[in-house]
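Data card: per-record layout.
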Amino acid sequence: MENFKEFDSQATTPEREVGSIISHALEIFKNTFLYCFLAVVIYFLLSFIIQMVTGFDSQLLVEEMSSGGHVDYKDIIAAPGFAAYTGASFLVTLLLTPVLVSLIYVANKSNFKQPIVVSDIFFAYKQNFVNIFIYALITQIALTILLFMCILPAVFVMPFFFLGYPILIFEKASAFDALKKSFDIVQNNYGTILLTALLAGLISIAGLVLCCVGIYLTIPFAYIAMYSTYCAYCGTPRQIDNN
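The structure for this 243-residue chain is written out next.
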């Protein structure tokens, strides 16, 4: 637990119940909205560039599916540039994960009423980056396998990963220690954390209703909710020196 400052009593800690955690996250999200928006814009812009470079037209597939055309997995896999796009996108997702994970650090600064700067959204690249990368890799592989099995297993299993990123940021744990601690906490509080993760997920994808544009505004909420859940079950972390 190195590089921490003294505890600041101005920070708030939610109760261990869904309403309190979500309310806490929403308040922080409101205060950090512009930085959350910037982080997501950076993330999607780089993903879009990768799509252009590989020549894969995901929009064409979306339009075909929405018009009632029959598109199965074979059509998607056979699409020009799909293989290159999938591999590049997977790697880019892993490399850009710290941008979104840094929002957990931004949330903590907001909770302590501390000024936030643009460079804070890149904080995770210098705070335990290797383990964040490994944890993201494990999470992506697990999610892919679960989604291929069925959506329901993914819904019920993924909450076990919910606290990993805050643990990696604030405790500088290894990826596997973070995974173990997250599993232990969720296992003993499964119902509350499952409902919290589901609500956070629904809020995060709510932007899809606004013709996909709104997802830029709402997707970071899941990471803020991770922070608030961590505060509820592990206590509000002390501030980290961003040197």
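Known properties of this structure: The radius of gyration is 18 Å. The chain has twelve helices and no strands.

See the next section for split statistics.
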